[in-house]
Amino acid sequence: MTLSPEQQAEIDDLRANPQPTLRTVSEGMEKHLYSAIPVLDHGFVRVVDYMGDDAAICQAARVSYGKGTKSVQNDEGLIRYLMRHWHSTPFEMCEIKLHVKLPVFVARQWIRHRTANVNEYSARYSILDREFYIPAPEALAAQSVVNNQGRGEALEGEEADRVLRYLRDDAMRAYDHYEEMISQEGQKGLARELARMNLPANVYTQWYWKVDLHNLLHFLRLRADAHAQYEIRVYADAICDVVADWVPFAYKAFEDYRMGGATLSATALDCVRRMLKGEAVTQENSGMSKGEWREFMGVLA
Ligand SMILES: Cc1cc2nc3c(=O)[nH]c(=O)nc-3n(C[C@H](O)[C@H](O)[C@H](O)COP(=O)(O)OP(=O)(O)OC[C@H]3O[C@@H](n4cnc5c(N)ncnc54)[C@H](O)[C@@H]3O)c2cc1C
Q1: Which of 115, 230, 232, 259 to probe ligand 1 with, by most ligand atoms within 8 A of CB?
Q2: Binding of FAD: at which residues (predicted)?
């Protein structure tokens, strides 16, 4: 179960009592408010609150008052211009607050994004749930032989069964000991802040994460990318869907210029110009290292 019955009841209550508002409303985002998007086996992402929409980006860029919308076409063109020219501050006028439930090893990668406000569930104060991330069989992959920071093909057969058994058994045993250590039945009971150190990194934690759209897009550029670890990428993918509904013009420009675009060095650009003139450019005469050339070919392919 991703949401506890108490959390679900709270969400149902909030959804049942909509408030009229004079604030900007993004129709696409309203459907996400108070709905948890399941991620991994026990995790979720849910939008708690947001501020602004595509028009708010344009409003700030024009430093205008009122809705800031000249025409829909104007707004989209302006947003594309801002994205293309790295004029980033208007995107900071939109904010999003998420409630995320995620394994601790994913949280360690996520927290490296410093330009957000975070408040995490306290395992000093509260007791952690018996919930651990156990990969689905297709995500249970071998170490990549070409990339030290990646994974290769999925494990199979007896090896996959054994690994899954270790992951489950170790997590359950650690949790049994955690519970036993904090128990105050017939003993003092170890402090929660100490007992938690016994738990593995696949235990779930939760936090509220608030970030502006500019920094969120930076996070998504890095974490929805194929180079990011699968377990954080699935959270980033879920957030991408939310952002696409929230600020459709900004998200389209982001997909075009950031996710789908590429940056070329002066040397690479020179190679492209030489190729366009019909010159046979190879790694040897490109001025690039083998690795750089391989990446350049990847971009062109
Ligand atoms: C595929 C991948 C592999 C990675 N591997 C490793 C690894 O092996 N080891 C490791 O330690 N990390 C690793 N990281 C984490 C990475 O180095 C960054 O810490 C992380 O992606 C956050 O990026 P950021 O600093 O740009 O983001 P944010 O912290 O959100 O910052 C956004 C931007 O704000 C500016 N900024 C924020 N704080 C400061 C500051 N204090 N000083 C100056 N400028 C600031 C910078 O311009 C920064 O780009 C990896 C990340 C990815 C995506």
Answers
A1: 115
A2: 89, 112-114, 120, 212-214, 218
